[in-house]
């Protein structure tokens, strides 16, 4: 009898332990399943966020590309010309790589004998801005070269140092004259501004230098430049014995 009771207690204890084990194992499986589901949700959230970021970046890239091909307003044009073009000028610092000649004795060219301060320039410039301010609708209209067109000019002047009169003229033509001519052309087509500035006819910038003279000058400058870059051989060179 005692043995049966003892066996019964053992069987009951084993049953109880087995039940507790299954319950504990079930809880562990449940917790493990919840963790896996939570990790899966986090992965889905990360993928969704990454996809949203890519879509946002692609949208901004499309908008930026579309904006860059759109014509600029006057003030945007002036800002780009100043920061991207005028500030991009590079002057050759090595005198041996520049054209040779007497800058104080230009041949067949007009040149100033005296340089004096333009003291009333700020006042005159303010008068110009006042005229544009009275026509704010004009200054905000997209009528001028786009950022893409300006970027093309930037690529043409990058890494090109000013080493001669011809290279300086080219820089001025591409970065100043062409844009000023465009501003005057558009202003001429606007009746209020045409009257404000008294624009009559067409204003065109051009080089008054004779074409044959320009070709000769460019050839001479190139010759001087090539001569400057050619290393000179010493007259009497003897190889020593070591």
TrEMBL record:
Basic and acidic residues biased stretches: 28-37, 47-68
Region of interest: Disordered: 21-68, 222-242
The name this protein goes by in its record: Uncharacterized protein
Species of origin: Aspergillus welwitschiae
